[in-house]
């Protein structure tokens, strides 16, 4: 049964408060001032490049100028003569272990490869790090890089998916002669071929999506030092996954885990690019250990654009069978993802094809499904998960299939969607995933209603052609151990763990393994915990990003933080609440059942009220008053995992575009997002995530692409070529909220981090194709080229 | 390239004497020589605007200036905006209220851009503000709330000025 209600806008409110949701707290649901804001607004945040240590050296990397070559010589002798340079190391000098990420799949499905920290024997993309230069200032380090002499024996580069699959030249990795790292064929419902043969209509979409850079405005970086007193390599680095950095660094450097401490300062965005373990931070840390001097490495923008982690270059060949009245009968897709030169840790090169394969049926009741997903390796910078991971692409393909079916069948495309949307929950999909309740149909209806009420459905523009497009989708956000185990990752992210401690003054400190880098967890997690204990959210301090203070955690990605980390924090707070009640019962000499948290920083015990400060006083300073079987202190630990298939946020996006026949330019006139992330802990933060996500989705639909030439040289090495949209291109977005609470997360929250990015490419592309409907041209490639729009309108303006 | 040059720099009203290589950028001098790390560096080629500071009141990219070029200018950075007790300025408060920042990395650049712009164009419309906001890059917010924040701040300043005029206070 679907329970949902409209919130936020009276006019659109639908159903009364759903049963089972306790919204009796003070903080959850309130857009309170962000705890992060004062320091960030006054320039008092502390980002990695703000950290300066005594005698610190600065690192710069000698990077490959070839896309594919044998390394025949690395001569750093001249480098070491450069004024200010202290040392320079190549792979042989540092002798570090490789970074290897594995899937537990048979050889025909997965080919293991490794990424060396510094290239040795071979380089596999232009920009690959070959040597590290350490100097007394960053300018001198760059001077040093210029003096390196690297000899290459060039090989034919593999620069496209087609070239990779043709496998005509030397392979990128010898272990994968066919340049395929992952090849899975899944589901293949019995009788699917007959369904296609017998179907009234079969529609096809062949879609390409351009390679993108997640482009956090703060580039990657690290400050590392060997601390003799702690006997630790301490690494300050901007990562979404501090424990995974610790594990990989320890393995590469041959250290015990306890000999590495990873600390994450304020972070200037990540969007997935920082949720994999990079090689430069490891090289910098190894150099710091070797030289016994602190080392700072700050990636420059050119490196970030050409030599970090990229994403999104995919090719879909999909067909869908429909009945005459628009019911989808079968889906058959072939997905090829160009993962670049290396497999990323911990997700592997399977991250994109496995996501697409597992989730492609999306929000529709697809009775028959077959998919082949492949990851090919090419001589381009490697890839990492980027906000949405494959979902922007397969949603785009599914939404194009719906539109094309409607066109073929002469039906309203929204009616075709309505005919096929999942409306009965829980729904067990053909992809063997169980979808928890959402508002798929309701979000579509509301989105259309808003655009109609605002007058956009009949809107025209003098001299320009207007189109309206939609995207319906859901987004799995609670990826627990179960879901990642299903993907057969050797390293299975999923749980998170929180420790909570109450101090003498009744304030609490809560650790989390998740890692906020713009998403406001210092605020939202504090709201969750404050409500659970009945204290002010300013009395709760969140601790994140320190591998010495936090038990192993999985960081922030896949919109998991509030669903999983927030639930762990909530569970820890609940445990602490039980401890406080138990102590109060003892002191007041009443039954535990006669106690409850009073919501005002105390425990009601019979007819007494004991403030937390009084209980803490006993727990720490007057332990002789404690019950015999209770130890001193007030602390509790709890973990949370999702054993089943997780939870799904959902949304419908509506987009209105105007095409300029003269230039092929696409202007977005209106953008509406109707989203449902369950209970919003902090509605304004949720809206911020949606708006920011939509901006990134629009960027992929219309502007950004990492292009390589035929030699594998990156053609967008600066922000002059890689066109990040500004306020002039990104429209204002109207957001409407629906609320279908999650049944098993604390507070009923679902995740909200990625949805905006997922829906936007499909909505924009559908709007452009709607505007082009009189031309007979349909575009299925992003970023949508102005030239293609111009060409289409030239024929039929 | 190791020659150093003596320069005198005025930042947030305070004079500094520095001995720096001529190629050292203003951004690096502010951040690493003066410890004013609120000015951020996002691209080092003048596109992103995270390093925007005011040079004699006008927004400028600190990554594209050598410190030696601005010896006789007054530089203002984000650290100058809040009150001495840390109280947020009206502009900063508007950013907080409108959720005009998420990760906060681009924020100092947008604040200084807006501070410089509003001083020059106090009557700017929301569309004009949006055009100016388009000078810098933000990857988190989608810009709408930044535009809202600057627009709101402009309105509040106009209202404050009007009420001062109405009450006959000399605002000169």
From TrEMBL, chain B:
SUPFAM superfamilies xref list: 2Fe-2S ferredoxin-like, CO dehydrogenase ISP C-domain like
Keyword field contains Iron-sulfur: yes
Pfam families associated with the record: Fer2, Fer2_2
InterPro entries: 2Fe-2S-bd, 2Fe-2S-bd_dom_sf, 2Fe-2S_ferredoxin-like_sf, 2Fe-2S_ferredoxin-type, 2Fe2S_fd_BS, Beta-grasp_dom_sf, Diverse_Oxidoreductases
Superkingdom in the source lineage: Bacteria
Keywords: 2Fe-2S, Iron, Iron-sulfur, Metal-binding, Oxidoreductase
2Fe-2S ferredoxin-type domain span: 5-81
Gene3D superfamilies, per the entry: 3.10.20.30, [2Fe-2S]-binding domain
PANTHER family: OXIDOREDUCTASE WITH IRON-SULFUR SUBUNIT, XANTHINE DEHYDROGENASE IRON-SULFUR-BINDING SUBUNIT XDHC-RELATED
Designated name of the protein: (2Fe-2S)-binding protein
Organism, scientific name: Pseudonocardia nematodicida
